[in-house]
Structure formats: C-alpha cells, structure tokens
C-alpha cells in the first residue's frame, strides 16, 4: 500500500512539474513619477503574454507563460525590494523590466546579477548600463542607450538654430546621464552651455533655479520626469519669463505636460524619445495587433515592452527549459541574425522552427533587436512637438 501511495505521489509530482507555469518577473513603475507613460507599456507586456499563451504556450507540453508583476516605482530602493521578491519568492526565470535607469542599475547590481538572473529592461536608457556588468552578460535592454539619444538631441538643437542653452537635470541616473551626453555633444558641435545644474526632484518651486539660469539664454534643456519636478520647473520658468524655448527627452513626454502647462505655452518645446521605423515589417505587424487591442502602437517604449516580453518567451523556448543559466545565450540566439525572421505575434511559427532545430531572428515592433557585446540595441529617435493638443513625433534622420 505504501509503495502504491509513493508511486502515485511521484506520478503526481512529475505531472505537476511538467505542467508548471513558466514565470517571468515584470517590475514596472506603475506608481511613481511617470505612471501615465508606464500604463500603455504594461499593456504591451500583457498583450505579448496573451499572444504566447493563445499560440500554445511554452514547450511541447504547452505550459502557461505567466508575467508576475511588481511595482518598482521608478525608485532604486523599491526596485531592489520588488526584484528580490520576484527572484527569491516568486522564483521567476528572468526579469523583463524595470522601466527607469536608476531602478534597473540598483536591482541588477544588488539582486539579479548576484542571483545569475537575466534582466531585459524595456526602457532603461542610461549610458552607465552598458558597462556595469563587468562581462557577466546578464543585463540587456530593448531600447537604445542615451549615449545615442543625447547626441541626437544636440544635433536637433543645432538644427533649430540654438547656439546657447542652459541645462537643468534631475539628480538621478537617467536624467544625469542623458544631460551629460547632451552637454558634451552640444559643446563639441560649437554650442555654448551657459549653465549646467542638477536639481532635486519633487520640490514645490524651482523659481530660484530658473531665474539664475535664465539670465544668460532664452533656451533650456530640461531633463526630468514630468511627475517629479519637470512640470513644476517648466511652469516656473514660463511664469517668470526665464526661458521661451525648451528641449528635453523621454521623461517629459506625457499628455499631462500639455494638460497642466497648456498647449498654447508649448509652441517652442521639443522632446525626443526612442521610437520605431513605422515603415518596417516588424512595426506593421505590431500595429495591427496593437490597434486590435486598443494599445497606442507608437507610444513611448510600448513597442519595446512588447518586444522584451516576446523575446524572453522565445529565449526560454529556445533554451528548452526555464533554467535561469540558459537564458542569456538563448536570448542572443533568438534576437541576433542569422535565422528565419519572426515578427511580433508569430510565436507558433517560432516554436515550430525551434522544435525542428532551426534558428530564428526576431525583428520586433521597435525594430531589429540584435544585441551588441553590452546587451544594447540600435534604435531610432523621434522629435515630438505639440500639435492639436497632443504630442506628434517625426523620426530624426
């Protein structure tokens, strides 16, 4: 009788193990300074999860692909706590996220790298991420580094005839990083940086700061998150007439900026962001899927969020198991050429090719996702201005 019970228990354990969910962690900043930007990114992650499970799930046994979400709050301390729980309690195979650079760096250095767990960020763009791992090959990202965006923004400023500019940046990894690249690039192109000052987030007023910086130029490069000081700083600058022209990057690209400051006051404002080549096959396939799900296909980092989730599932499928140690190599294998092209939504096609022993090359919603030696990808950037009460972007050549 005992032997029968033991045998039955063993069969039960084997059966449940074979049908166990494949779980990845997704520490998104659903609260914090940029919730309006993050909400459609979350929807992109969820849509990828849906497509994967609708097309047979994981492996030949059809195990469910599950996204375990946590709130990184765009904050280093919160990100460390969130990822610690995902890795040690939820026992996730890999991490897709976080959103913000400071959160990504903090959790990677403190948690995911020591645990040997791959991180694939959906939008962290600080140049510091490229060289933070010391060769461990455990941090990747589906959005281009600000080492490129800062240069593109400097070129854009020069093309607009801006010859001198003040720089104000929030004192965090992302904003400090892109501000540094921008300032160096602008100066190298012959522009004059009249002042280059950090500001602390979440202050009630920045009147003193903008009054001082505005004494030498009418142009301000503002690098901040809109929900933790960026809007206040711009409003204060306009109220006292310190600046008339503003440029900046992703952290300020939100409808809330228009709603609070007024479209009529933003006629000389341009913000850049990572974007997609909308004429590509990958974006065309993605747009059809996003439109059907009522998700903004071209929203900031929304395509990147879908791509990161879809690629992580493809990598796990390629590895043949949820073994954490196999993910890094498998991720490069499915993302980098050569291989048969896989577009967004084509999970069943990819599974069949992998099962037959073939190679795949994912060409995503945000473009080709070929990782370099640092886990970085190339990308496109757009210049966004206010038109008819909303942000409208065009790709920067």
Structural description of this entry:
With 397 residues, the protein is of the alpha/beta class. It has 2 domains: 2-144 and 279-368, 3-Layer(aba) Sandwich (Rossmann fold); 147-273, 3-Layer(aba) Sandwich (Rossmann fold). It has helices at residues 2-18, 35-54, 76-88, 101-115, 146-159, 173-188, 207-213, 230-239, 255-261, 281-292, 302-319, 327-335, 347-355; strands spanning 22-28, 65-71, 95-96, 119-121, 139-141, 164-170, 192-199, 219-223, 245-248, 269-275, 340-342, 360-364, 367-368, 380-387, 390-395. Strands 7-6-8-9-10-14-15 form a 7-stranded mixed beta sheet, with helices on both faces. Strand 14 and strand 15 (390-395) form a beta hairpin.
The percentage helix is: 40-55%
Largest sheet, described in full? 7 strands, mixed
Strand portion, in percent? Answer: 15-25%
Q: Work out the count of structural domains.
A: 2
Number of DSSP strand runs:
15
Span between N and C termini? 75 Å
Strand order of the largest sheet: 7-6-8-9-10-14-15
Strand and helix layout:
Layout: H1 2-18, E1 22-28, H2 35-54, E2 65-71, H3 76-88, E3 95-96, H4 101-115, E4 119-121, E5 139-141, H5 146-159, E6 164-170, H6 173-188, E7 192-199, H7 207-213, E8 219-223, H8 230-239, E9 245-248, H9 255-261, E10 269-275, H10 281-292, H11 302-319, H12 327-335, E11 340-342, H13 347-355, E12 360-364, E13 367-368, E14 380-387, E15 390-395
Parallel strand pairs: 1-2, 3-4, 4-5, 6-7, 6-8, 8-9, 9-10, 11-12
Antiparallel strand pairs: 10-14, 12-13, 14-15
Helix pairs in contact: 2-11, 3-4, 5-6, 11-12, 11-13
């Amino acid at each position: 009788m005992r032997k029968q019970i033991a045998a039955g228990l063993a069969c039960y354990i084997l059966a449940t193990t074979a049908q166990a969910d494949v779980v990845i962690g997704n520490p998104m900043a659903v609260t914090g300074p940029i919730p309006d930007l993050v909400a459609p990114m979350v929807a992109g992650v969820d849509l990828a999860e849906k497509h994967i499970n609708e097309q047979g799930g994981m492996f030949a046994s059809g195990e469910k692909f599950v996204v375990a979400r946590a709130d990184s709050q765009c904050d280093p301390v919160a990100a460390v706590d969130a990822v610690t729980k995902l890795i040690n309690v939820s026992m996730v195979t890999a991490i897709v996220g976080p959103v913000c650079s400071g959160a990504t760096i903090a959790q990677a250095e403190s948690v995911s790298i020591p645990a040997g767990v791959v991180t694939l960020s959906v939008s962290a763009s600080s140049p510091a991420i490229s060289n933070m791992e010391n060769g461990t090959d455990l941090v990747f990202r589906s959005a281009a580094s600000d080492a490129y965006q800062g240069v593109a923004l400097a070129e854009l400023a020069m093309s607009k005839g801006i010859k001198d500019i003040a720089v104000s940046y929030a004192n965090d990894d992302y904003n400090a990083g892109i501000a540094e690249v921008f300032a160096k690039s602008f100066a190298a192109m012959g522009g004059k940086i009249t002042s280059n000052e950090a500001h602390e987030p979440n202050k009630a007023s920045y009147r003193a700061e903008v009054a001082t910086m505005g004494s030498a130029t009418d142009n301000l490069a503002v690098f901040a998150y809109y929900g933790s000081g960026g809007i206040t700083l711009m409003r204060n600058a306009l109220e006292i007439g310190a600046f008339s022209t503003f440029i900046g990057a992703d952290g300020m690209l939100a409808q809330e900026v228009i709603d609070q400051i007024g479209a009529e006051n933003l006629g000389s404002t341009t913000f850049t962001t990572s974007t997609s080549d909308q004429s590509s096959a990958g974006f065309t396939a993605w747009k059809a899927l996003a439109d059907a799900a009522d998700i903004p296909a071209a929203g900031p980092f929304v395509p990147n969020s879908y791509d990161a989730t879809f690629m992580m599932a493809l990598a796990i499928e390629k590895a043949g198991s949820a073994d954490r140690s196999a993910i890094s190599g498998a991720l490069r294998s499915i993302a980098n050429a050569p291989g048969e092209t896989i577009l967004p939504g084509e999970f069943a096609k990819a599974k069949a090719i992998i099962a037959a022993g073939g190679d795949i090359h994912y060409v995503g919603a945000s473009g080709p996702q070929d990782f370099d030696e640092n886990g970085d990808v190339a990308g496109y950037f757009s210049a966004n201005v206010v038109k008819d009460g909303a942000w409208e972007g065009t790709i920067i050549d």
